[in-house]
Amino acid sequence: MMWSTKALKLNQYTMLKKYQKVNQFPKSYELTRKDLLVERIQRMQEMHHGPCLFDFIPLTLTLPRESVKL
Length: 70
Prior knowledge:
With 70 residues, the protein is mostly helical. It has helices spanning 10-14, 29-32, 34-47.
C-alpha cells in the first residue's frame, strides 16, 4: 500500500504494482481535512436556509484564524 499525505502525481500512479493500493481517492482531501470539511458544510448551511438541514456538526472553530471567537 502507498501512503501519502498529498495528492499523487500521475507518474506515481503508473509506477504502482498491480497488487498495490493507494490510501486516498484523487481530490478527496477536502473530506479528510477537518478545516476544509467544516468550511464546505458551513457553505451548505448558508446556501440552504441555515443549519436546520446540516445540524449534525457542533460549533467548530479553525485555529488560529478564529481564536478571537474562542
